[in-house]
């Protein structure tokens, strides 16, 4: 049972929005006293996924939630875009595969930085991409 | 040229310290500034200090590595210095080890790696 204590919806429509979203995530992590490594991890994953939404979707959004499972505090973020989706999910998650001007480590890399990572597609191809990530505070 | 990232010359070495968020426009201007300074000043070494960055994602990492490769084509060796522990851990966990980029703990070690002779009085 996940309890959501706060939610912030943010648009991702330009490069400055990527910076704003990751700053908000960093601020929450620091306010909640995540250790510096966990803070860097979730901030960096946010940057990767926000950039993915902008580059592949043209624009998108991030919904940042402060959550608790009764024992731990966590930050959960849903990234959504209206892009073409991902044709080959296993390949995108394996890393080193890029359809844009990047290194193709956005998805695979950010997955390694968070505790939970769910990739859902509205439809296989054509309906946008949704990525839900959670980082839990260590005891 | 935006000149948002100052470039200093120390003997035969250029020194830049990145203190601001890199975004597309800033990054391209930064790379152009560095390359023009290398040509103008005839330098052989470039030290990029990133101790002011608390986050380096693969976008920023790519810009840094690219800058080093560009400088290399002009005969200048690059050393990346001042990477924070959190940044090192995050980059490697993402699968990006900055291969092909020389690194040193801090500015002192970076200059030593380039064989820079610091004048003494």
Task: Please give a structural write-up.
The complex is a heterodimer of chains A (139) and B (121). Chain A has 139 residues and is an alpha+beta fold. Chain A contains four helices and five strands; from the N terminus they run βααββααββ. Chain A has one domain (3-136): 2-Layer Sandwich (Heat Shock Protein 90). Chain A has helices at 15-31, 36-57, 89-94, 106-111; strands spanning 3-12, 60-68, 73-81, 116-121, 129-136. In chain A, strands 1-2-3-5-4 form a five-stranded antiparallel β-sheet, with helices on one face. Chain A is globular, with a radius of gyration of 14 Å. The two termini of chain A are 19 Å apart. The model of chain A has no long low-confidence stretch (mean pLDDT 88). Chain B is of the alpha/beta class and 121 residues long. Chain B has a single domain (7-113), classed as Transcription Regulator spoIIAA. Helix content of chain B is 41%, strand content 18%. Chain B contains four helices and five strands, in the order E-E-H-E-H-E-H-E-H. A five-stranded mixed β-sheet of chain B has the order 1-2-3-4-5. In chain B, strand 2, helix 1 and strand 3 (45-49) form a beta-alpha-beta unit. The mean pLDDT of chain B is 91. Chains A and B meet through helix 1, helix 2 and helix 4 of A and helix 2 and helix 3 of B.
